[in-house]
Each structure stands twice: as C-alpha cells, then as structure tokens.
Amino acid sequence: MNCKVMGIVNVTPDSFSDGGKFFSPEEAVRRAANHIDEGADILDFGGESTRPGATPLAWDEEWARLEPVLGEVRGMKGKVRRKKEEGKGKKDEGRMMMEDGRGEGGKSAEIQISVDTYHPETAARAIEAGATIINCVYAQPIPDMIKLLDVYPGVELVLPVRCAADLAPYRAYLPRLYLDPMIGFDTTREEDLRLLQATAELAKLGRVLIGASRKRIVKRLTGTKVPGKDLAGNLAIALWAAQNGASVVRVHDVRETVQALKVWDALSEAVA
Q1: Which class would CATH give 4-271?
Q2: Which residues does 131 contact at the CB level (< 8 Å), separation at least 6?
Q3: Which pLDDT belongs to residue 219?
Q4: How high is the pLDDT of residue 96?
Q5: Is pLDDT at 194 greater than 60 in this prediction?
Q6: Closest Cα partner for 217 from 200, 201, 197?
Q7: Mean pLDDT on 18-29
Q8: Helix (H) or strand (E) holding 29
Q9: Whole-prediction pTM
Q10: Taking the CB of residue 252, how many other CB atoms lie within 10 A of it?
C-alpha cells in the first residue's frame, strides 16, 4: 500500500472531536509538531468546526484563527523550512520540508500543509502562507475553489466526489485532485457503509482521500457511546481504505495509524 497519513489539527474552540484543546496557536503548533514526530505525511489545519449545528464563520474570522498557526509552523526553526520549487512564479506554493532526517540517507522528508475551508478567500491566503493542499469541506464543489487551481499551478484540491458523474466536470484537473466521498457529511449508516465499500471503485477514477476519523460511523456500527473509545474502529477503517486503494487517510490518531499501516505493509510483503 502507498497510503499517506494526514494528521488533523483543529484550530477551533468547538470541535466535535477534541473539544477545542488545540484552539490556541501555541497548542495547535505543538499538535502539529507531534503529528510530524508521529510520522504524518500531511498536516491538515481547520479553522471552522464541521460538527452538526456549528455556527458558520466569516472568512476573515476563520483566517484570523489560521494565520498565526501557519506562520508559526512555517517558522519552526530546526524543524520545518519553506522551500520554493525552482522555476516557479511568485504565486506558486511553497513546500514545508522536515529537517529531521527521516528520508533515506538523512534527506529531508517532505511534509505538505493542507487547510480545510469552503471560503476561497481563506484558501488563497493559506496558499500564499505555504499551504499546498486545499481541503474543500463542503458537500458540493465550489466554483471559486476550482478557479484557484488556475491561479496557483502547484496547488492540489480535495474535491467532494462520490461517483464518476460528480467528477466529470473537473476531469481536466484530475492529476491535482483528491477525491473525498465525504463520509459522515449528512449521511446515514447505510450510506457511509456503501461509500466506504466503494473505495476501490472510486480509486479507479483518481486519488482517494478517506476522512472518517472520529465520526459517527464507528459508533453506528458498534454501538459504543463512550467518547474517545473508537480508536480500534477508526484504525479498521483506515486499513480498509488503504487496502482498497485510498491515497490518503485523514486521521486524528497519527501514531497509531502510521503503526498499523506499517505492520499491514510488512505482513502483506511477507505473504507476497
């Protein structure tokens, strides 16, 4: 399997998954550093809660939460440096590069920065601040988000796609898209199951991102009602997704997910 792990950093006071523990810039940056140490390939920052009933934010309020965090992450001395790709214009994105020797031969391991938003204004500012992926957390594609791909040639976009018909208008951008079936977004237990079971089919269309971490599907499948006791179920979903062709799993529990994927890979290679 060649599946990347995207570590979630919620810069919100009302997150359904962590109760706002990382709302302050200092805590959010610390969380990001922990995810890097735990093996994340991508850091995913969100400034607005997607929980049911959450109060929508104006883009400038959302950006006020994200800006200091992205600035700190970009400036982590001895940890992260922003490297401009050679030959690109000033509007092209930077890339966050870890200087921790995790790559082969002591080379820097590349860490991409993603920002969750449905506001094009926030997305543009995040790209200028070094984000390379925009995670469009909305049930339908937003035209102005698609336009950003023309303005910033190196940026990638997570697009809500559940079938080939959803993707059809955007096929020209396919090499720069991640397809997200939007698990847990206004869906029933049966709908979430069907979407997950269709991961392999969706992966035939392009790169798939599965983001089911700490959502209701595990509780619906197992009946557990204790908050924070769904890790095993989340790992099962991540392994299922990776085995069925997902390119990225978006998770809160980075260390455990990375470990599970490594063990699965080792066992799969041994059998092969």
Answers
A1: alpha beta
A2: 45, 70, 93, 113, 114, 115, 123, 155
A3: 87
A4: 46
A5: yes
A6: 197
A7: 70
A8: helix 25-38
A9: 0.84
A10: 20
